[in-house]
Amino acid sequence: MKPYRVLLYYKYVPIEDVDSYRDEHHLFCLEYNLLGRVIVAPEGLNGTVSGLVADCEAYIKYLQADERFADTQFKIEEHDLPAFQKLHVRVKKEIVHSDLPVDPLKKTGKHLEPSELKEMLHDPDVVLVDMRSNYEHAVGKFKGAITFDMENLRELPQHVHEIESLKNKKIVTYCTGGIKCEKASAYLLEQGFTDVYQLHGGIIRYGLEEGGENFDGKCYVFDNRVVVDVNTVNPTVVSTCYVCGTSCDRMVNCANCECNRHVPICEKCGEALEGACSPTCQAHPQKRPYDGTGYYPSASNHYNPKQGYISLRKAPKGTQESKSRTV
């Protein structure tokens, strides 16, 4: 068993005093040395956090002890190290940026469990539609799935016409952890699609519970791991090296911080170009040192997770802060 866990979850539920709950949530994460990203919004909670096993278990108990989050579903993965360098608990207007005029608490696609999706994959009337960004599905997607060339979910209305002819099919939307599909499936219903489903728990849960069969490539994730394996049944590689075109699912950021392009680059080209995506970027004065991973977390500037609490609350002098315990 690996010493760390990565928890991925979301919950659509009204939160009235988002600022107070943000403070409470942030302080709990400090106490248990948890790192990651959590969004608090009037419509709910969305987070990915990482820490030692016992601390992650405490976090799950903390959330589920609150009746608003009692039935929150967690996707739990093992990891050798913390999956983040920082802790951010932020208040935003949505828990996933979409600007779509829908409320998933009132209408959304039918939730499809991973085992049910596995059965439906053989149904000729089923069409899988990927609701992730182009750079995410470029490195991995379900076999035969429809993808959109969009940067984010806000662009979905510009692409719905591409599946207009499929309104009478069984549409199954999917994404990394399920959160985008709550609104995406609701939007498709608003646009006249009649039989819309969503993969409950997303790609990650499908891989954990059903072995990821027929998911080609790897799944892009928003932490230090960048991509993770999903398919243990019939895995394959679908992406190619941005530089030389060979088969490759090793996702990196261009070492030139002004480019920062997120693309697959094989180890050979990564070494040759020192982590850059082109000779031009290799020669750029802003090129970062290449450590062989191609992952560059934002500069810490002597990051202290308590500062996120202090700066957002603008705490007056003398304010007592929760002390973080050592583990």
From TrEMBL:
GO biological process: tRNA modification
Coiled-coil annotated residue ranges, if any: none
Keyword tRNA processing: yes
KW Oxidoreductase (keyword) present: yes
GO molecular function: oxidoreductase activity, acting on paired donors, with incorporation or reduction of molecular oxygen
Alphabetical UniProt keywords: Oxidoreductase, tRNA processing
Function: Catalyzes oxygen-dependent 5-hydroxyuridine (ho5U) modification at position 34 in tRNAs.
Family: Belongs to the TrhO family.
Protein name as annotated: tRNA uridine(34) hydroxylase
Gene name of the encoded protein: trhO
